[in-house]
Design a protein that fits this description.
The chain is an alpha+beta fold and 128 residues long. It has four helices and six strands; from the N terminus they run E-H-E-E-E-E-H-E-H-H. It is globular.
Amino acid sequence: MGFTRYWEFSSLDEEKFKDFSSVCKVLIDSMNIPLEDITINERQVRFNGVDEDGHETFYFSLDKSGFDFCKTNIKPYDEVVCGCLYIAKVIFGEDIRINQDCDSGDDEHIIKKVKSILRENKLNKILD
């Protein structure tokens, strides 16, 4: 087994996905966690950790609805995965369900970091 994050949606708004992907780019650029295989565009956000710090590729796509997951094994890039899923929940609201193999309180330090990055990059509107 291993630590896994899960999400599910039936459809997402394309304009909101553009916002989601642009905010994820800011997050990825700001978190200073080494990533590889990065693809960020209007249809998908995709990345993995580097070498031993990678596990399964995070792949969140406008074109891939239904149930999906990313097993991170709590490697360093898990913080970026958690951050992107937090951003997804904020932007898409009730259109997406997100879960993980821990209590939501276990992610509080990551969410604080993400909120700080959003404020530093003047993306406060995402939090409102």
